[in-house]
Amino acid sequence: MRTRTKICGITRIEDVHSVVQEGADAIGLVFYPPSPRSVTIEQAQKLVLQIPPYVQVVGLFVNASAEEIQHVLQQVPLDVLQLHGDESPELCQEIAQITKRRWYKAIQVKPDLDLINEIQRYQHAGASAILLDAWHPDLKGGTGLQFDWSQFPKLDIPLILAGGLNPDNIAEAIELTEPFAVDVSGGVEAQKGIKDQRLIKKFMQGVHCGSAKRSD
């Protein structure tokens, strides 16, 4: 099966063009002001205008209320919500009911976490997928860290691999974990929030290589 790819933390129009040119399936926009990759509503509106059909726009939110997310959606046409904070399954359900959007939950793989149980809690709440990211005590994504890929489970819900991915390790990561999709941000950057077209191209080549190996 082909591994889907999302490039997250897009802040510039030229980076939208690079991501689309290299064949990524989704673009991630961060609506979390503490992040160096965060965009304003005005920035997001300009970026979305450059995104063609068949490339999905994912909005990343961290501990935002349903009302805050709805405020963004009224002005920016997001396809899917990525809930990347400490949102409970109940809050995720409430957000989905109010926004009428599909959503998936990011889970940081902490030491001693009952990962299967945690995934199933959000699956039962209606998550369309689960993103597994490296744990950091203070940061919510974009850490450049990776977790132990041997912990990556095989379940009946699409699983997205994130955390510390880059052009040099992506093929191996896909071969080992066989995820539905992969999500990268810092691994294809020249600096925080500024993507590097050369790295994006090399990353996508690695995705294709890893996908080919998993199908052999």
Short description:
The protein has 216 residues and is α/β, with parallel strands linked by helices. The protein contains 7 helices and 10 strands.
What do you see in this structure?
- The chain is α/β, with parallel strands linked by helices and 216 residues long.
- The protein has a single domain (4-215), classed as Alpha-Beta Barrel (TIM Barrel), CATH 3.20.20.
- The protein has 7 helices and 10 strands.
- It has helices at residues 13-21, 41-48, 66-73, 89-99, 115-124, 170-177, 197-215, and strands at 4-7, 26-30, 56-61, 80-83, 102-109, 130-134, 159-162, 181-184, 189-191, 194-195.
- Helix 3 links the parallel strand 3 (56-61) and strand 4 (80-83).
- Helix 3 (66-73) packs parallel to helix 4 and helix 6 runs parallel beside helix 7.
- The mean pLDDT is 94.
Q: Number of helical segments? A: 7
Query: Would you list the SSEs in sequence order as H and E?
Result: EHEHEHEHEHEEHEEEH
Mean pLDDT: 94
Using only C-alpha atoms, the radius of gyration works out to 16 Å
Oligomer: single chain
Corresponding CATH superfamily: Aldolase class I
CATH topology: TIM Barrel
Largest pleated sheet: 8 strands, parallel, barrel
Structural class: alpha/beta
**Basic shape:** globular
Helix content: 25-40%
- Which architecture does the CATH hierarchy give at level 2? Alpha-Beta Barrel
Tally of DSSP β-strands: 10
Uncertain spans:
none
Strand share of the residues? 15-25%
What is the count of structural domains?
1
Main β-sheet, spatial strand arrangement: 1-2-3-4-5-6-7-8
